[in-house]
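Good morning,

Attaching, inline, the backbone tokens for the sequence recovery test we're adding to the shared suite. The designed sequence is right after.
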């Protein structure tokens, strides 16, 4: 092998590795690599195929990190810990620190960074999305990828000042491979989300997509029925409910450009409500 083809192979291997990591395959599950490109022996008809991997009990133990204390706790104890940690935070910095120390959400074990929030913490509008993707995981900030670019441009064209918004998610770590967060993962983060809202105390909330709407408003409604309607968000830590508007998630609009009209109308409704409040736009 000459030097050039060695370098090319190295670059191809790195590109393949980047792709695997981006798809969420960022953990080794066995100690012995398996070359699946090699031809596997085929058993003659009627015969048991020769074992190419040892029986399950003899397989090398997967190299998975030992479960943390919190992930081995009973769910109710994990939930109580999450509620206590979230309630103890009296500022956004303390809430972020509480999440940095929180081990009760398994997503943290595969994520690169905590994705807490971006924007102005004193903004009148708090936007809440679903879960960080690869770009957000890398940068540690929500909505910095393609969905974020669409969101920023709609805010711009609707005449809403970037300083008038604060952006977060219902889970604080990227689900591997961009899968949807599970109910358990959402449940583990929920006390922090409620505390997050209580500490920001926005005048208005925008819920981006069904999972954010269902989680924050504790409903099971479909997004296409609820979108564009103002619904009160109430919580015992708030002295008054906060009007919340569910809208389509920007990623959904990117996949379904015919929905741009709906998201645009919902942002105009937001702008109108913000103007009526005399809020900063
Ligand atoms: N989608 C989300 O719901 N949140 C992000 O932070 C990015 C994309």
């Amino acid at each position: 092998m000459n030097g050039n083809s060695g370098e090319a192979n190295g670059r191809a291997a790195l590109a393949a590795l980047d792709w695997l990591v981006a798809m969420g395959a960022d953990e080794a599950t066995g100690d012995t690599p398996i070359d699946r490109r090699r031809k596997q022996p085929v058993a003659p008809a009627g015969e048991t195929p020769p074992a190419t991997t040892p029986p399950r009990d003899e397989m090398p133990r997967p190299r998975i990190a030992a479960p943390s204390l919190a992930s081995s706790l009973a769910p109710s104890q994990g939930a109580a810990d999450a509620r206590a940690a979230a309630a103890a935070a009296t500022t956004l910095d303390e809430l972020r620190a509480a999440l940095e120390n929180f081990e009760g959400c398994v997503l943290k074990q595969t994520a690169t960074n905590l994705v807490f929030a971006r924007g102005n913490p004193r903004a009148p509008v708090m936007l809440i999305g679903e879960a960080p993707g690869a770009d957000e995981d890398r940068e540690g900030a929500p909505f910095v990828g393609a969905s974020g670019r669409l969101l920023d441009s709609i805010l711009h064209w609707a005449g809403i000042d970037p300083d008038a918004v604060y952006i977060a998610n219902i889970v604080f770590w990227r689900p591997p491979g961009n899968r949807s967060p599970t109910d358990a993962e959402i449940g583990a983060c929920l006390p922090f989300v409620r505390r997050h809202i209580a500490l920001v105390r926005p005048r208005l909330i925008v819920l981006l997509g069904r999972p954010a709407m269902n989680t924050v408003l504790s409903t099971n409604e479909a997004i296409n029925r609820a979108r564009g309607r103002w619904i009160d968000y109430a919580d015992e830590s708030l002295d008054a409910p906060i009007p919340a508007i569910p809208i389509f998630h920007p990623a959904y609009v990117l996949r379904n450009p015919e929905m741009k009209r709906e998201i645009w109308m919902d942002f105009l409704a937001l702008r109108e409500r913000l103007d009526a409040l005399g809020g900063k736009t």
